[in-house]
Input
Amino acid sequence: MSKQTANNDQPYQAKLKIHFSWPSSFAALALVTYLFMATEPNIAGYYGLSDAVFDWPYKVCAMALFALLLWWDAHRYGRDKIKHRRERERLRDEMNQLWDSRKQLQRKAHTHAGQADKLKLFISDKLLEYIEYDEKFLHFKSIAAEVRHNGVISFDKVQGALEAAYAGLPEGDFARRMTSDALEQLRYLWDLLDLATADNIALHIANQLCEFEEQYYQRELNAEATSTWALQPDFSPQRALERALMPMLENPGDFMERLQQDLPLQWSDDSQFHLEIEPCGTLLGNENHWVLMLENLLKNAQFFSGKRPYRHKYRRIAVKLSEHQGRAHLSVFNGGPPISEEDQQRVFQLGYSTRRVQEHHGKGLGLFFVGEIVKGYEGQVRIRNTVNEASRLSLRVTLKDGRVITDMIETVLENELPLVVLADGATDKERHWQFDHRAVEIEMAVQGRREPQRLTLDDSSGKTLWLDPDNPGRPAWVIQLHNRRRESQLVFTPLDVRGVAFEVALPLAQTRLEDDSIDADLEPDFEQLNEPFRALEDFRDTGTEPFSKR
Output
C-alpha cells in the first residue's frame, strides 16, 4: 500500500496554529519605557543614560524598529488567517464528504436490504418451484409408465382391428386406402408417444436401432424369407420427407405426382417451399422418427421465415435431400435472425428456445426432439448462418436488332442489407435499364465464376421474372423484364439472403452394413508390424549383422 493511499485512509487532522504578537508587544513596551525616560531626565540619570541617547535620530530608529516589528506581526497574522481559512474549508469539505458518504451508505443499506428481501423471496419461490417440479416430475414418470403400459394394450387392439379391416377390403377400394392411412397415423402417434414418455430419447432410439440392425442383417442374408414382413427395418428418406411436407404444401397432389417420376427433383410450385430431392439410399430405423424430426424442423422454419424484417415475396423455405459419402444429408434453410455460437450450443436443450412469444407452451420441444433423434441415429446436426455479401456481376443483354448491351452491377451492404450502386454512384434498392428494342437474351455472370447464366426469351410480350439460378432456394437477386413491341425495360433487385440452415447427416443402412470407416481404422499396418524384423531379413539376404554400426 502506498503512502498516499495510507494517508487517504486516515481521518483528516486540521493544523490550526496561533501565533501571538509577542515581538510587537515587547517592542511597544520598550518604546513606551524609552519615551517615558526621555521625558524624565532624573530617571535616565539614575540609570546612567546620557542625554544623547534621547536625541531625535535615536527616537526615529526606535519608532522604525517598532513599526517593522508591528508589520511583521501583522503579516504573520494575515498569513495565519489565510491558512486557517483554508484549513476550515478543507475541514468543511471533509465533513460534507463524510456526511454524503454516510447518506450514500444509508441509501445502499436500504437498497441492499430491499434486494436481500427480494432475493430471499425469489430463492424461496424457486425452492418451492423446484420441490413442486420434482414432485411433478416423479408424478409424470409414474403417469408415463402407466400410459406406456395401457397404451401398448390399446395400441395392439386398435392396430389389430385396423389390420383386419384392411385385409378384408378389396384392392383399389377407397375405404382400404383410408384404413391404410389411419393405420399409418396410428403407428406415428404411438411412436411419438413412445419417444415422449421415454426417460432418454437418444438411448431409447439407439436400443431400437440395434434391433433394426439385426433384422436388416437377416434380410440381407435371406431376402426371400423376410420379404413378407409387415414392417421393414429400413425406410426411404424421400417417402418420409413426402409425409412431412404433404400437410404444408399448397398443391400436395402435384408434388406427389412429380415425386413419383424420376429423380433428381427441383420443385418450386409453392409460395412457401423450394424443394431439391436427389436419389438417396435407405436409412435404418423407424420412418416415423424421421418424419417427426422433419416436421419439427419445418415448423421451426415456418415460424421464423415470416418474421420481419427478413420477409420478402421471393423468400422461401429451402429443403434439400441428398446423399454424400454414405450419408443422407438434409438441409432446411429459412430466413430469419442468425443464431449465435452460444445459442447454437443450447438450442437443442430441453426448454430452451430463441422464440420470444408470450404464452408459448412447449418452448424448445421441437429442436430438442431433433437433437435427440439425431443423436440416437448416430448422426450429426449443424447450424449454418447465412449473411449478405457484397458482389460484382456482369450483365449482358442481347437486343432483337443484334446489339449487345454490357454493364457492370455492383452491390454493397448498408445496415447489413444489400443495395445496388447506380450509374451516378448513389445506392438504391433497384436499378433500371431502358432499351429501344426488345430483349431476346439475358446473360448474368458473377465475378469469380467461369460459367455465366443465360435466359433466352421468346417473342411474346409481357413480364418475365428471373431469379438467381445459382441459388434457387435462397436467391441473391431477381431480374424483372418487361418486353413490349419495340422496347423493353429491365429492373435488377438485390435480395436479402440472411437466414439459418439446419443441416442433418445420418448414415445410410448400407453404410452401417459395410462399416468401411471402422474397418479402415481397425485394419493393421503390416509395414509397421514388420519393421522390427526388417534387420533380420536384411541379414538373411545380405549377410549383414543385424543392428551393426556402419
In short: The first strand starts at residue 234 and ends at 235. Residues 20 and 73 are 8 Å apart (CA to CA). The chain has three domains: 18-150, 198-386, 391-497. The chain is about 50% helix and 20% strand.
